[in-house]
Design brief:
Strand order of the largest sheet: 1-2-4-3-5-6-7-8
Strand content: 15-25%
Number of strands: 8
CATH superfamily: Alpha/Beta hydrolase fold, catalytic domain
Distance between the termini: 39 Å
CATH architecture: 3-Layer(aba) Sandwich
Number of helices: 9
Largest sheet: 8 strands, mixed
CATH class: Alpha Beta
Number of domains: 1
CATH topology: Rossmann fold
Shape: globular
Order of helices and strands: HEEEHEHEHEHHHEHEH
């Protein structure tokens, strides 16, 4: 496909995904004192369990290259889509990069070290308590974490916290209580993403720039945190120009070398954004992948 045609199609996919109006949550809870430390809850719209009973809980981590311009509102139609499929949904906000360019930079900074990671860890740790407090009809024993793009990275990272270096403040002594992780077009291998300049060097920015990249990778790069022992599936569009297929494939290869089988669902003629577009067939595939792990 010619580059201009591919770019035009990618732009149309992004426009379609962002055309849906934001969907207000049923409730919101704070997991910290910062204004961005919030979780939106969506109650299942249909009965998920025959005969009643609490629904599986899906934790959603939004993407946007860990940059401030993108918050959880853009993924709220996807969260609502999952709720209409019978899931209880917790959509997590977290601190992202500053809207002010770094010194000598030309655009907003991706992520905040260590705050972005502080927040994801704190949100996941607080969820069982918040679910109880909000009386959400959710079975936290059937929790699946999912995320798109940069959020896909965070989902994989959240499932691997027990493999972090022992001095990491987010380290867990045992695997997180997750039924699985479904990462959508994730920035899953920082070395490959950096070589491909994914999202204008977002992974390098997240870790603090050139001088900190190698030092901090063992604390942040999912491809170095394997095998997790947690069922994991990646969903990736073959025509994704934002986070190319090679990034997901590199993570899957690293998992295989570590002795772990990671599912990799490659979707033909699908780019970056249909995975979270409720009107796209790819989004239904994502919901099915989540259901496979939740049950």
């Amino acid at each position: 496909m010619p580059d201009d045609v591919a770019a035009a199609r990618a732009a149309a996919e992004e426009e379609a995904a962002f055309a849906h109006p934001a969907v207000d949550p049923d409730s919101t809870a704070a997991y910290g004192d910062h204004p961005d430390q919030l979780i939106d809850f969506y109650t299942p719209r249909v009965e998920a369990v025959p005969g009643g009973g609490p629904a599986p809980l899906v934790v959603v981590l939004h993407g946007g290259a860990w940059r401030a311009a993108y918050d959880r509102r853009h993924i709220s139609p996807f969260a609502d889509f999952l709720a209409r499929r019978g899931f209880a949904v917790a959509s997590v906000e977290y601190r992202r990069g500053s809207a002010i360019p770094a010194q000598g930079g030309s655009g907003p900074v991706a992520g905040r070290w260590p705050e972005t990671f502080d927040d994801v860890a704190a949100a996941l740790d607080a969820l069982p308590r918040l679910v109880r407090e909000k009386l959400l009809p959710a079975d936290v024993r059937r929790t699946v974490v999912t995320g798109h793009s940069a959020g896909g990275h965070l989902a994989l990272w959240a499932a691997a916290r027990h493999l972090l270096p022992a001095d990491a403040p987010w380290h867990l002594d045992r695997p997180a209580p997750l039924r699985g992780a479904v990462a959508l077009a994730p920035i899953a291998d920082f070395e490959v993403a950096d070589k491909l300049d994914v999202c204008a060097g977002a992974a390098r920015q997240l870790l603090g720039g050139e001088e900190k990249f190698a030092e901090r990778r063992p604390y942040a790069d999912p491809s170095l945190l394997l095998p997790t022992g947690i069922a994991t599936t990646l969903v990736q569009g073959r025509t994704d120009l934002t986070v190319p297929q090679a990034v997901a494939e590199s993570y899957a290869d690293a998992a295989a070398k570590a002795g772990e089988v990671v599912g990799l669902t490659l979707l033909e003629d699908v780019g970056h954004f249909p995975l979270i577009d409720p009107a796209a067939d790819a989004c239904a595939v994502v919901a099915e992948e989540i259901a496979q792990l939740a049950w």
